[in-house]
Each structure stands twice: as structure tokens, then as C-alpha cells.
Amino acid sequence: MEANRGWVKQGMSERNLQVEYKEWFNRECEAKRGKVLLNVIITLLTMAAEETVSPDTNNISLEELSLNIDFGNTNQALVFFDLETSGFMGDCDVLQIAARHENTSFSKYIEPNEPIPESASIVNGLTNQGPDMFLYGEKVQSFPLRIVLEEFLQFLINCDKKCVLIAHNCAFDARVLVTIINEVSLKDEFSNVIDSFVDTLPLFRQKFPGAVCKLGALADKCFSVSSQKMHDATYDVLLLQNLVFKHFTLNELLSKVKNFVKTINFSQNLKSLRPLETCVSQPIRKRMAYEGITYDNILSMHSLGEEKVVELLEKPDSDGKKVIRTKKIMNAILNYLKNLNT
């Protein structure tokens, strides 16, 4: 044995020597593993710090970045929009509508019908005393819902093209926007200017698999910006516009559009299909509703014969696939209809 080993002691038995050696060896390995782990952590933290802010976006505002965007020539106006709301349910109050087309912006606050819940105020900084609204304690001018929607409509008309409305988590924003448009009976007017919706959330999830794709997280990754303005709709649409044009081509952006007219009729169609909930799952009823199929349509076709029902339910959807794609579900619907007559 080497005399300079720390575990060697004079007069030790061979067994004790082996035990002492194992203990020394384990201590040495732990120390080395600790050093390796520390180096790995330092390396990862360094890489993360280098990726957080792109060098070309230091000390430059999002407004300045937008001026450098090449919007190109499109047949449709790309309008980024965002809603601030009093909650996450479909019947919540809309508190702010903001939108941006190229370098032109729109933003209006809306008088709430109910007190703004504290949970919402913590997120967006908006509070109210009756119809008076405050943003972080400072009063902001707010207007009745119909007036704001009429002004938003005029903003879209001024784009001079059919509009594609783009939002992050558009599944929520589109549903709420459609609800308030119907509420003030402006469906036909908006249908004349809006072509479709695009949801950027699934696009970013596809672009960055496994990453957190909330707007704030994407901002931290790509731009040197403060998170203090997050959840102000005006700021969010400006941020989203910059993020989209940084990461996606026009073809990628428009690859998953949702037709506006179909979307605006969706809620009503889905409600009509409630009698089928005993035999058809909600996701399939949603697909039927989006494709314009209503309960009355089905009953009308059934009066003409089962083959007409099958023809209606097997028509191609937006992806070119049948609305009802399995014999099991088709038979369940046909059996339901048969039982209505017994």
C-alpha cells in the first residue's frame, strides 16, 4: 500500500484496512461527483443567461422593432388582438380590447357590468368603482361595450382588406369576442370584415417542444423587455406581433386558420346538439357544431330517410375528413333517431 494514502493507519488488520479503503474511496468519488455537478450547473446557467436576451434586441423598444418588420403584401390584413377579461369563463366581462395591424394600434377599455374580481385585478391591474375603471390605481377612460365594438369594427374596416385575427390562446379570446359581438347584434357587420382566426399558442408549442409557451416566457427568451406590462392588452399585441414575425413565415402562420363565420355560429350550434350528449362525446359535438351541423339539421334530414342523415354527417370537414368518422358513432346517432319515433 502507498504510505501517503489518508486511509492508511499503522497496525490495522487486513479487514479493517479494506473497510477504511472503501470509505476513503467513496469520499473521493463523492467529492469528484460534486465538482462535476457544480461545473455542469455553472455551464447550464451560463448558457441560459446567454440565450435569455438576443444581442440585437438590447436597449431597443418593441415599438422600434416593429418598425423593422417586413409585413409583405398579403391578400388579408393580419390583425393581432388581445382581450383583458374579468375571468376565464365565457360569460366574463371584457375589460379591454386591443389590436394592432402593421404599425397602427387600437385600444379601448370597457365599462364592466360587475365588480372586477380581485383574482383578475392581481393579473391585469384593473379595478373598478361602478363604471369607473382604474389601471394600477390611475383612472382610465372606459366606454359602453357597444361603442367600443363599433369603434373596433371601424378599425378593422380601415385595414381595407378582409382581416385575419391573431391571438395567443385564441381559443379563449375568439370565443369571448364572438359572445360579445352576438350580445350587441353586430354579427353580420363583423362577418363582412373578418375572414378567420389564428391561434399562435399551438404554433409556438410546435416550434419549441417541451418549452413553456406563455407570452411572458417567450418574451423573456427572445427580447430584453420588462414583464411589468404583461397582461396589458396593448402591450401584449405588440409583443405577439414581434414574436410571430421573428419565428414564423406567413405560410406557417396561416396554416391553421379558423373560419370566422363558422366560429361565430359555433356556440349556438353546439347548444342545439345537447340532446345528443347521451350518445355523442363533446369533442365530436364540437366538430359537428363547427361544421355548421345543428340538431334541427339532423332531424330535418332524418325525415327524408337515414341515408340523408349519413350524407349530412359524412360530409368533409375543414381538414377534408368526414365529420363523423366511425360506424360506431354513426350507428349511435341513427339508433337515437329511431328511438325518437318509438
TrEMBL record:
<feature type="domain" description="Exonuclease">
    <location>
        <begin position="77"/>
        <end position="254"/>
    </location>
</feature>
<dbReference type="InterPro" id="IPR036397">
    <property type="entry name" value="RNaseH_sf"/>
</dbReference>
<keyword id="KW-0378">Hydrolase</keyword>
<keyword id="KW-0269">Exonuclease</keyword>
<dbReference type="InterPro" id="IPR013520">
    <property type="entry name" value="Ribonucl_H"/>
</dbReference>
<dbReference type="GO" id="GO:0008408">
    <property type="term" value="F:3'-5' exonuclease activity"/>
</dbReference>
<dbReference type="InterPro" id="IPR012337">
    <property type="entry name" value="RNaseH-like_sf"/>
</dbReference>
<protein>
    <recommendedName>
        <fullName>Exonuclease domain-containing protein</fullName>
    </recommendedName>
</protein>
<dbReference type="Pfam" id="PF00929">
    <property type="entry name" value="RNase_T"/>
</dbReference>
<keyword id="KW-0540">Nuclease</keyword>
<dbReference type="GO" id="GO:0003676">
    <property type="term" value="F:nucleic acid binding"/>
</dbReference>
